[in-house]
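Morning!

This is the sequence you dropped in the shared folder:
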Amino acid sequence: MATKDAPPRWDRKMQQRLARGEAAALGELYDRFASLVHGLAHRVLGDERAADNITREVFAHVWQSPESYDPKQGPLRSWIATLTHRLAVQRLRATETAALALDCGGTTEELERKVRSASVAARADYIVTSMPTPLRAALELAYFQRRDYRQAAADLGVTEDEARRRLRLGLQLLSTAHDAGLSGTPPEYGGAR
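The structure's back. Tokens below.
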């Protein structure tokens, strides 16, 4: 039986394969996480070309430095999301700082507000796509279809108590996106930078 702290087997094997230089492993990793990486980068940067560049940078980093992933710190998915977030925020800051230097208007406070806002939005997207399907389904009913917990319970075929529990848990998870944006440190992967 695996210990609670043991990373998923797939994560460990993937890291080992990358460390051996298996190109097929990189392709498999890309197939599995490219949409996550691109989506997070696009959410932070709001630019398709910049998101493409960040996606290339993330996978180049993973290929060149697979040992920088520490399975004890969390899942590979979270590490990749954190790496993406960090690189995208760095790119956003560099782009906006360059615009400030050219005196295109704006202040450093506005820049930091924009970075925080983009970070919160990207983290919220990551949380929603990563949460268990029952929680996501309850939140989608409540948010997009304006269902209350009684209606959500009926639509989901669960008790009202279970619908309330799912909505509460989903909202609690989403609230961590805002908390992370305020601190500036993404909480996934232990907040590692």
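Headline: Residues 76-101 form the longest helix (26 residues).

More detail when I'm at my desk.
O.
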